[in-house]
Design a protein that fits this description.
By secondary structure, this protein is mainly β. Helices cover 4% and strands 52% of the residues.
């Protein structure tokens, strides 16, 4: 039986879309691509034998994050809406060790900074978190696998439009 390829993450970077030519690839320690979790509504009928959490088309708030050593340049535009690129490199271990680019374009607010406890003998890590994410697009090797836009009322997984019929039923 054919197996899915094993992809190994080998590197990450995060940068503002507007700041071409800048990179944090040598200092980023961790990058958290936001989890994708569908909202649910619970139904527990009074005479039913089972409670059911029905999955809705909507997803919970996307909250990407990353960690890096102290970097004051990130305070430029802190708390303001901006576009960011979360980049990664995956190695396809089953297909000639090809390097596959991962890109996520995030529109949101870098709104939280949390320095970790440290001492002079350790590198200080700072956690940075996003909120107010209104647009998110993720691709692997050029193939879009997630697209979410609040203003467009669009959600796609591997190109499949999730809200098309819903928007049509609303008359929009």
């Amino acid at each position: 039986m054919p197996q899915r390829p094993l992809l190994v993450l080998e590197g990450v970077d995060i940068r503002r879309v507007s700041q071409t030519g800048q990179s944090r690839a040598n200092i980023i320690n961790k990058m958290t691509v936001p989890p994708l979790k569908k909202k649910t509504v619970s139904h527990d009928g009074g005479g039913a034998n089972l409670e059911v959490n029905y999955a809705l088309r909507r997803i919970e708030a996307l909250e990407p994050a990353f960690a890096s050593p102290f970097d004051i340049s990130l305070f430029d535009g802190f708390g303001e809406v901006d576009q960011w690129i979360m980049a990664g490199v995956y190695r396809d271990t089953d297909n000639g060790h090809r390097m596959l680019p991962f890109r996520a374009i995030v529109t949101g607010v870098l709104n939280a900074w949390e320095p970790s406890e440290t001492d002079p003998a350790e590198m200080q890590d700072c956690n940075w978190m996003f909120a107010e994410v209104t647009d998110y697009q993720a691709t692997l090797d050029g193939q879009e696998f997630i697209y979410v836009s609040l203003r467009e009322r669009a959600t796609r997984y591997l190109g499949k439009d999730i809200f098309g019929d819903f928007n049509a039923a609303l008359g929009i």
